[in-house]
C-alpha cells in the first residue's frame, strides 16, 4: 500500500486542528480542568508547527525549519505540562520551553541548519524525551491516582519507542534521501503514527478527566458538606457492606448513635456559626476516634452514627465512653462547651439488619437523654 505523502500531511494538520478545537471547547465547558486547556494548546501548537514546516520549499526554508520545529517542540513541552497539571504538580515553564529554545539556539549553527539528518535526529530525540517525561509524571503517582492510567501510559511509551526505533532504522542517509523524493519512508511512517497517536491520546485524556470528575462528583454527593464526613446515604451504603462482611466472617458488630445535647439552645444562644462549629468539631472528633474499618456519618441535623465491625457490646461501650469524654472536653469559645448522648446497640440484640440496629440504638439514646444527657446507654431488651 502506498500512502500519498502530501495528503497524509494535510490530514495530519487537519486532525490536530480538529482535536485541538474539540479539546479547547471541552476546557471552556469544564472551566476548572486546566489539563484540557494544556492539551488543546499541545494539539493546536502541533498543527501550527506542522503547517509552518510544510511551507518548506516555498522560498521560506530557513524560517520554516526554525519556527516550525520550535513550535513542534513547544507543543511537546506543553503536552508534558498537561500531565503535570493532571497529577497536581506545578508547571515548570523553563522545562516546557527548553526544547523550543534549544532548537532556536541550534538554528544559529550553520552546520545544523544544513544537515537534514542532524535536525531530524535532534527533533526526534526531543520528542522521545518529552514523551518519556510525560509518561513518568503518571507513573510516579500511579498509586495515588484514582483513575485508570494504563491506556495513557501504553500510548506514550509506544509513541516514544516508535520514534526512537524509526530513528535507529532510518539512520542518516535514509533521512537525507527523503527530502529528495527518493525515500519517503521515514516521514510517511512518522506522520501516520503521529496522526494515530494524536487521536488516541486526545480521547484517552478526555476519558481520564471525565472519570476523575465523575468520581469527585460521586464523592461529593456522599459527603456532608459541613463536617466533611459521610452523609446518611454514604453511611447507610458503607455500613450495610460492613455488616454483610461481618455475617460472612461470623463476627459481631455494634452501632453508636450520637446526638449533641441542647443543640437548639446552643444555636439560639450563641448563633448558628457556633452551632456549625460544634458539628464540625464533633465530626472531626468522631472521624479521628474510630478505627480504619469503622464507618461513621452525619445522618441528621445534630445526629451522628458509627458502626463498629468486629466489636461486641463491651468494646462498643468503651468506644462510646471515650467519644463522650472527648466531646466534653471540646471548647468552642470561652465558656462554651458541648456534650453528647450516645445510644449503643449490638448485633447480639438486633441481628445484622442496619435499620433494626438504628432503631434499638435510638431507644438507647432516648434513655440517655431521659437520664440526664452527657451519658452512654446500651439497649436493654
From TrEMBL:
Top-level taxon in the UniProt lineage: Bacteria
Reactions the enzyme catalyzes: 2 GTP = 3',3'-c-di-GMP + 2 diphosphate
Record keyword Oxidoreductase present: no
SUPFAM superfamilies: Nucleotide cyclase
EC number(s) stated in the UniProt entry for this protein: 2.7.7.65
UniProt subcellular location: Cell inner membrane
Annotated TM spans: 6-27, 34-57, 63-82, 91-112, 118-136, 148-169, 189-209
Classification via InterPro entries: Diguanylate_Cyclase, GGDEF_dom, Nucleotide_cyclase, Rev_trsase/Diguanyl_cyclase
Domain GGDEF: 251-381
Record-linked CDD domains: GGDEF
Pfam families: GGDEF (PF00990)
Protein name (record): diguanylate cyclase
